[in-house]
Amino acid sequence: MSEVLLSAKGLRLAFGGVKAADGIDLDVRHGEFLAIIGPNGAGKTTFINMTTGYLRPQAGRIEFDGKPILGLSPRAIVRRGIGRSFQLPQLFSEHTVLENAALAIAARRGIWSPLTPLLRPRWRDEAMDLLDRFGLRAVAESRADALNEGARKLADIAMAVALEPSLLLMDEPTSGVAAAEKMVIVETLVRVLRSTGVTAVFVEHDMDVVARFADRVAVWSQGRIAALGPPGEVLADPKVRREVIGIAADA
Amino acid sequence: MKRESLLAALGTLALVACAWAVPWLKFILTIALAKGIAVLGILLLLRAGQVSFGHSMFLALGAYTVAFLAPMESEAVLLLPAAALVAAGFGLVIGLFLVRYRDIFFGMLNLAFAMVLYSLLEKLYSLTKGTDGIRVAALSFAGTEPERGTQEWIVFGIALGLAILFGLLVRFYLASPMGRALAGIKTRETRLEFMGVPARRVLLFAYVLSALMGGVGGALIAMTTRHVTPQIAYWTSSGELVFIAILGGAGSALGPFLGSVAFELVRVYAAAAVAEAWQMILGAVLLLVILFAPGGVWGLLSRRWRA
Ligand SMILES: Nc1ncnc2c1ncn2[C@@H]1O[C@H](COP(=O)(O)OP(=O)(O)O)[C@@H](O)[C@H]1O
Ligand SMILES: [Mg+2]
């Protein structure tokens, strides 16, 4: 096991004239929590989309666990151990929260059984346990589209965690969540993630959250990484404060 | 759930009682059960948010399999699985292509395949006798060749047994991981992919199962009417299946049978009462269902319980 889990080199991707990735080099280390900050449109989601096989970069390389993953389908990449959650939660809206969780568990354990119920006792227990860890037990029987934004975000991440990835990419796990709920959600998340030992990359706009929970911060700006390092250093950098945090705070 | 089983048991008894009390209804009810089995397939695809407007092609495949093979092999116990296999095999072949498409494209491509099949059945006269159709040769049942009245009861019984079997199968399937993933295609297909689940394969399984049930329905229809014509593959027949699915409601595996029995009875009585106007009556019924009872007959019944 090398120290680097995910290694991206020279990723480039332009949409028309917009350079969403303009030479991204980034090594994600085993076990770290890496925060990505930067203004809207900087290319943060694009990076996640390229890493998960949803978008294909026009140039560059991505290695995961020492093996190239560029060109693989999202499905194949998930199976190798990269999970993701979404800026807009992607839940099965007509299913209950419990079924959403159980489906994610089924996806890992084997979905191809046409006659035994999804909510068989063992999977139900496992799904309940998962929801419990995310503080979602109370809403287990609710339809996913009846949840508030914070709970939907957590359920979305819970489904990614159920797949037991070794790398989890989270796109703005706290955006759209009421300020009062935010710290609770982040604390829940960090507790669960630390207990699984997963390596996590998360896009975040709240600098308090970043300062408190990230091991390192990468600052995105116009498709490039403008700064990278421990939060103490990066967030204190006057240039970062002026150009990125100022803009992000307005956005 | 308990009530669903209770309703199924009561429905079964009611069907047997009706068929016994009013002999000429036996024919109608057998057809209704056969169509109900085919409509179970429509229901599966509806769960994935997809509508097939060509599903009668599988009825036609099942029915023509019986008509073609009966002169060589009269045993119904063999003809039924043969029809199911032919339909499922065809469903697998075109399904591999169809599951790439969604919504209107999925619906229309099904229609296109059904229209091609219809024209082949109509045009290849030397093989199919065109619109005249084929008379189904005498059948045997587990080695016996009972007289006509008994045969009608036997086919009715087989249809009822298969309706229960496939109804249960569909119920278990819809609650299984594959069935719940199928329903996930309707709301969040990308999530399936990001869970490592191939959505197309999930849909393909449902499609092949729906084709198989279509073939079984068609075989039963051939064994009941004893005469098979290309009409069974015509687009109006496919529309009828979708109609029945909506009429019965997609909320339960009972829906297709509630729908098909209601449909066939309305058709018979409306046709008798107002001759040429039954299609208008069916149209009006469909309109009322969509406007006031989007859950269909099943929705009305289960809502009553909850109230
Ligand atoms: N699929 C796409 N098609 C066209 N333009 C895109 C697409 N995805 C992203 N972009 C553009 O690329 C830039 C970066 O977008 P994104 O990665 O979503 O930024 P961020 O997540 O940092 O807000 C934006 O200008 C956006 O409009
Ligand atoms: Mg974004």
Quick take:
Chain A has 251 residues and is an alpha/beta fold. Chain A has helices spanning 44-51, 74-80, 97-109, 121-133, 149-162, 179-196, 207-213, 231-234, 238-250, and strands at residues 4-15, 18-29, 33-37, 59-64, 67-68, 82-85, 167-170, 199-203, 216-221, 224-229. In chain A, a hairpin with a 2-residue loop joins strand 1 (4-15) and strand 2 (18-29).
The total count of helices of chain A amounts to 9
Distance between the termini of chain B: 16 Å
Low-confidence stretches of chain B: none
Shape of chain B: globular
Spatial strand arrangement across the major sheet of chain A: 6-7-8-3-9-10
Poorly predicted segments of chain A: none
Largest interface comes to: A-B, 34 and 26 residues
Instruction: Write out the CATH superfamily name of the domain at 4-90 and 165-182 and 199-245 in chain A.
Output: P-loop containing nucleotide triphosphate hydrolases
Query: What kind of assembly state do the chains in view correspond to?
Result: heterodimer
The separation of the N and C termini of chain A measures 40 Å
